[in-house]
Amino acid sequence: MTAIVPPPSRIYLLRHAEAAFPAPGQSDFDRPLSERGYAAAEILAENAADKSYKPDLVVSSTAIRCRQTADAVHRAMGENLDIRFVDALYNATPEIYLDILGAQQDMGAVMLVGHNPVIEQTLEALIGHQLLAQALPNGFPPGGLAVLDFDQGRNNWRLIDFMID
């Protein structure tokens, strides 16, 4: 398990919602959300807002499907939500995701909107393989949102909720 020191108090890991199949000649980076993905992103964002899950900062990949997922979060959680789009999250490693999270020391809660398998690998780095396998036996689904709190006493991350549309 990985400790981010000093940590934000809460981390939200959001895998972009379901993407459309690429059109002929379309790059992976430019794939938008499917119709189902748009709907799922909106529902998930609204449900998260209803649970008072609101980050201080959203850091999203610049890929179109991540931008669209982050936009759904923005609509559900308010105009003053700070969103930053970061090129390095596309085709990244878990270490890059963790470094970006660790750099947000002045934030109470941070949401990362990214891609699989890296979002799942990042969750595994934070909570460990055994807990990941128990919580997500079928892997990290598109549009899934992991909510993690830092346990100061144990100096580790705890998965407190996992949401899907």
UniProtKB/TrEMBL annotation:
<dbReference type="GO" id="GO:0016787">
    <property type="term" value="F:hydrolase activity"/>
</dbReference>
<dbReference type="InterPro" id="IPR029033">
    <property type="entry name" value="His_PPase_superfam"/>
</dbReference>
<protein>
    <submittedName>
        <fullName>Phosphohistidine phosphatase</fullName>
        <ecNumber>3.1.3.-</ecNumber>
    </submittedName>
</protein>
<dbReference type="InterPro" id="IPR013078">
    <property type="entry name" value="His_Pase_superF_clade-1"/>
</dbReference>
<dbReference type="Pfam" id="PF00300">
    <property type="entry name" value="His_Phos_1"/>
</dbReference>
<keyword id="KW-0378">Hydrolase</keyword>
